[in-house]
Structures are given as C-alpha cells and as structure tokens.
Amino acid sequence: EKRTFTMTFAIARTALFAARRQAATTATQQAKRRMGGSSAPAPEWTGIDKIVRDKFPQDDQLAAAIIGGYFGLFILYKIKSAFSSAPAVDDSPAPVAVASSASGAIPDVDSEDFGTFLESEENVMKLVDSFEK
Questions:
Q1: For 105, phi and psi rounded to 5 degrees?
Q2: Helix (H) or strand (E) holding 133
Q3: Measured between alpha carbons, how far is 99 from 51 in angstroms, rounded to an integer?
Q4: Burial code of 99-113, b = ≥16 C-beta within 10 A, e = fewer?
C-alpha cells in the first residue's frame, strides 16, 4: 500500500510539473502576440483638414494647436480689456447727511448714524427693547 501512495504521489507531481510547463508556454506565446491594429492606411484629408494635417499630422499635435489657439485668444482678450478699460467716473451726487434720529426711529446698523445713536443711554435702551419684541 505504501508503494501505491508513492506511485500516486509521483504521478501527481509529474502532472503538476506538466501543468506548470504548459502555463508558462501559453503565457510566453500570449505575450508575443501583438494587437496594434496599425495596418489600416492613413486617411486621405481634403479641404481645410489637408492644410492643417500637413502642419500637424498627429492627433496630439492638432489638439495642442487648438488648445493653444484658444489660450492665445483668451490672453489677447485679457490684454485688450486691461488697456481699454477706463477708470470709472463716479457722477453720483454726494450722500446727504441724515439727521440723528431724534424722532425715536432706530437707524440701520450699516449707516454712519448708528454710532452716534448708541452714544445715548436712552437710545441703547430703545435698541434693547426692540430686540425683545
């Protein structure tokens, strides 16, 4: 029975080595296989495409030229707008000073009168009362 076990082990080991050898051979053959697909003829360009493709035959060159063209237009626009923009002249009338709110109305927080409004203790109490409403 020991002999049967040894023989079975030897057969299994031989089969394992054969499988490994077959896998290595298959992997080597697949690595050699090329799938470039470069056998198609170059397209015949006509019109403006022919003129452009004479200067930029590869697709990446053409893409770079198009992006560069748009970037150049953007830079020219920015330079033109920097030189042609005149400083804005403010023709609006000067703001009229508003009298302090003696009538009891609370001025807007953003207005210049709010600081003078808070100088009086009575006005501060009006403000606090308005918060509680």
A1: -80, 140
A2: none
A3: 74
A4: eebeeeeebeeeeee
- Please give the Cα distance from 53 to 88 (Å, whole number): 47
Would you say 63 and 52 are in contact if contact means Cβ atoms under 8 Å apart?
no
- pTM for this model (two decimals): 0.37
Residues 6+ apart with CB under 8 A from 80: none
> What is the C-alpha to C-alpha distance for residues 98 and 96, in angstroms, rounded to an integer?
6
Here the tokens at position 7 are 């023989």
Token pair belonging to 114: 């709010």
Q: Which two tokens stand for residue 93?
A: 């009338």
Q: pLDDT digits over 87-127, tens only?
A: 666 666 666 554 544 566 788 878 888 888 888 888 888 88
Q: 4: which 2 tokens? A: 């049967």
Report how far residue 52's alpha carbon sits from residue 45's, in angstroms, rounded to the nearest whole number: 9
Which burial class, exposed, middle or buried, applies to 43 when counting CB atoms under 10 A from its CB (0-12, 13-18, 19+)? exposed
